[in-house]
Each structure stands twice: as structure tokens, then as C-alpha cells.
Specification:
By secondary structure, the protein is mainly alpha-helical.
Length: about 120
């Protein structure tokens, strides 16, 4: 792991909020996660991206300080996901958006302001 990069993350986060260069923070974040959307937002509207950049850099700094690597995160995921799957019941058939729409249409057919969906026009 690059100790110098971790130190630059720490320096950016320790700088008082008013004195931070959000564009520099966005560049650091881009090097970590490759999120071009946040990077572009920070380049054009730094005040809008500041909170997001700060939050993500804190999160990634903590991961780096804890000594986690990509492989250690994958290993934790392999251990944790089977346990989570046993705790969370699988979704029942018919819990999706289509089923909800169908139920809504069935219950509200008497209301004129809630018309049935019309079939698509032939091309």
C-alpha cells in the first residue's frame, strides 16, 4: 500500500474545511475509486461536491489505516455474505414493481382518474 498517498489523504482531511481545495480532494478520490461523475462535479461546482468528497475520503482513509487490501475485503465478503443470506429471507415472487402496479390497478379500477394501461400501438 502506498504510504505517501495515505499521508496525502490524511493531510487533505486535516486541513480546515474553509481552506481545502475540493478539486485536489476530488483528484485523490478519482485515484481511489475512478468515479468521474464526482470528479467532474467537483471541477465545475466544488461547493456542491465538498461533502461527498470529504465523506468518501474519510471512508477510504479508514480502510487504508486499518490495513485492508482488495483481497482482504473480498475475503470478508466471502465470509459475511453467506451469514447475511441466512438472516434475510428471500424475496417472495410478486414483490417487485410490476406486481405492485398490478395490485394497484386491480384495487383502483373503479376510479376514473386511474385508467388501465393501454396496450402499445402497433408500428
Amino acid at each position: 500500500m502506498d504510504k505517501e498517498f495515505t499521508e496525502s489523504l490524511k493531510r487533505w482531511l486535516e486541513t480546515p474545511r474553509e481552506e481545502r481545495d475540493v478539486r485536489e480532494g476530488a483528484e485523490l478520490l478519482l485515484r481511489i475509486n475512478g468515479n468521474r461523475h464526482i470528479y467532474n462535479l467537483a471541477m465545475n461546482r466544488p461547493e456542491a461536491a465538498h461533502d461527498h468528497v470529504e465523506y468518501d475520503l474519510k471512508k477510504f482513509l479508514q480502510i487504508r489505516l486499518d490495513g485492508h487490501t482488495v483481497e482482504s475485503i473480498r475475503e470478508m465478503e466471502r465470509e459475511l455474505l453467506p451469514k447475511v443470506r441466512t438472516l434475510i429471507p428471500p424475496a417472495r415472487r410478486g414483490d417487485g414493481k410490476r406486481a405492485l402496479r398490478r395490485r394497484h390497478r386491480r384495487r383502483n379500477t373503479h376510479r376514473p382518474e386511474c385508467p388501465q394501461r393501454t396496450p402499445p400501438r402497433p408500428r
